[in-house]
């Protein structure tokens, strides 16, 4: 399917995670070790927060490993919070509007996974989305509908609750349409103040997701990590680099929230909207 990563910490050149490390995100676009597909070459995107309230976005339908502009930009863009995504389509067209991250109202959103039986539930999901949001949808993916449904359910004010309502609605709708296991997902999202990750699937066998462990301890082991501040937190689909000690698997049906230099893991339980 896809691979993604999110960073939150002191301002950092994006190349330090997207390009430079062994098994970087660019490497994962060509040779993923833990993804459903080895190759994730159906486009990519990166979104970052800076001085403006709205995040910057760069997307392309090129494979990440073949885009020299990505390498150049990541060498010059320094950000305290960014999300990057390499895409393996589940059937929707390869076009720029289908590449992640999606952005609206100051939020960034990436997704790895799919809505099973999407053709059966797409209409119901579309009609549930706030009309003011629906007409801003540009692409054809299930991911973009999920994002807008979460915004409809209050993502701006209650991110985790909105994602649980979004997931609950999709599961209930899918099962009504005869889809046994409607959703498979890991999600990454941010409003520039916090970084969130979610690992969930209807069958409770979700795609992999990890978060970084305490940087202070790791810096004693590997001096190369000194370039990262002690409160750095990274969320990834699969580990970057060679140090297994640097990563902790996010439990099944869980959400990870990074805010104010702290990381919290909470249960994730879909619910129907009120």
Features:
alpha+beta, six-stranded antiparallel sheet, seven-stranded antiparallel sheet, 274 residues, 13 strands, Glutamine Phosphoribosylpyrophosphate, subunit 1, domain 1, 30% strand
Tell me what the structure shows:
This protein has 274 residues and is α+β, with helices and mostly antiparallel strands. The chain has a single domain, classed as Aminohydrolase, N-terminal nucleophile (Ntn) domain (Glutamine Phosphoribosylpyrophosphate, subunit 1, domain 1, 4-Layer Sandwich). It is 25% helix and 30% strand. It has helices spanning 15-18, 25-31, 68-74, 118-128, 131-134, 142-152, 159-176, 215-221, and strands at 3-13, 44-49, 56-60, 78-86, 102-104, 107-115, 183-190, 194-201, 210-212, 233-236, 247-249, 254-259, 262-267. Helix 4 (118-128) crosses helix 7 (159-176) and helix 6 (142-152) packs across helix 7. The chain is globular and about 55 Å long.
CATH class: Alpha Beta
Low-confidence stretches are none
H/E element sequence: EHHEEHEEEHHHHEEEHEEEE
CATH architecture: 4-Layer Sandwich
Write the layout of secondary structure elements.
Blueprint: E1 3-13, H1 15-18, H2 25-31, E2 44-49, E3 56-60, H3 68-74, E4 78-86, E5 102-104, E6 107-115, H4 118-128, H5 131-134, H6 142-152, H7 159-176, E7 183-190, E8 194-201, E9 210-212, H8 215-221, E10 233-236, E11 247-249, E12 254-259, E13 262-267
Antiparallel strand pairs: 1-4, 1-10, 2-3, 2-4, 5-6, 6-7, 7-8, 8-12, 9-10, 9-11, 12-13
Helix pairs in contact: 4-6, 4-7, 6-7
